[in-house]
């Protein structure tokens, strides 16, 4: 059915026909059987049900009316929300953007002046790079190969720890990293350097970062209590760490999320009344405690679905024969996603999500611009 035919039917007052219940169920739900799920594909093209006279084309007004985001749990570290009315490709696009395309600041260059610990220089630099830096990356510029390190594209930290107590071990943590707002303090060594030349460091800061309004009263710090190395008596680490802006697809240390995932909303339906001993057995079979027992007025007991969101679709409730698959129907809603974001600490999870939406919007605008 073409758009003109649909508009003509609407103008004539003819209601758009609907799919039969069994086809509508397969279109909107993934059916989880004991052996494998079925109806896993997402039917989006407009002519899918043309023979039944049903218009399946994607319309912006329908999307705008059906789409919603509902936050279920939020903290500084993580957030869980429901995203309803979107195609799986949109949910996956947001997930991939969160993992690989949102910029953060991470340690890229490590200048080691002294390292007598058992941790090799390369391993030490790698561990430092994975420490999350608690600063808004939107306040900084990218550092290209032709740029020099300055106060707008580089953050400098200093680490100097030494175990001076005999018979003891010193644990060096990320708390020992000290922010140097004026830039590098290590001097470059050069054969051409004369006694009258001005000492040159590894950065070219024109002003102190703590004097900038963005950081006034808000010092840059790192995620605390992360173990860097353990030092024995007499062992020492002295280094400078330079953090720059990057994205996760370049290296995982720039990924702003510890993990990010989604799952389709589980739907558990009892297709018939389950009473008595079978109700007790059904509750015992479920490891996720989805079912509860309801006491009826006549002294009987009946199984009910109390916590469908807790269902992990392990299918234990429909195994072991005895026609359990005919009594319990396990489904997933194709356009309802339970989304979870765990931030590394650089930015709150709600900010990460809004920034991911902006990046997806920019991608769509570039595609539209290229096609027009």
Automatic annotation (TrEMBL):
Its main location: nucleus. The keyword rRNA-binding does not apply. It is found in: Nucleus. One of its GO terms (molecular function) is protein dimerization activity. Residues 137-207 form the Ig-like domain. Keywords: DNA-directed RNA polymerase, Nucleus, Transcription. GO terms for cellular component: RNA polymerase I complex; RNA polymerase III complex. One of its GO terms (biological process) is DNA-templated transcription. Pfam families: RNA_pol_A_bac, RNA_pol_L. PROSITE patterns: IG_LIKE (PS50835), RNA_POL_D_30KD (PS00446). Belongs to the archaeal Rpo3/eukaryotic RPB3 RNA polymerase subunit family. HAMAP family: RNApol_arch_Rpo3 (MF_00320). This is DNA-directed RNA polymerases I and III subunit RPAC1. It comes from Eucalyptus grandis (Flooded gum). The lineage of its organism: Eukaryota, Viridiplantae, Streptophyta, Embryophyta, Tracheophyta.
